[in-house]
Amino acid sequence: MSAPHILIAGAGIGGLTAAIALARRGFAVTVAEKRTGFGETGAGIQVTPNAGRVLDALDLRLPLRRSAVRSERLVVRRWRDGRELVAMPMSPGDADTPFRALRRTDLHTVLLDAARSLPGIRLSVGRGLREVEQHEDGITATFLSESGQAETMQALALIGADGLWSRVRDLSGDSAPPSFTGYEAWRTLIPVREAPSGVGQVNLHLGTSHHAVHYPVAGGREINLVLIRAAREAREGWSREGEPGLPEQETRQASQALRGLVGAAPAWQVWSLFDRPPAAMAKGRLALLGDAAHPVLPFLAQGAALAIEDAAVLARELSAHVGQGGGAAVPVALAAYAKARQARAARVQAASRANAHNYHLGPPLSWARNLMLKRLGPDGMRSRFDWLYDWRDED
Question: Which positions are annotated as active-site residues?
Answer without folding.
Answer: 215
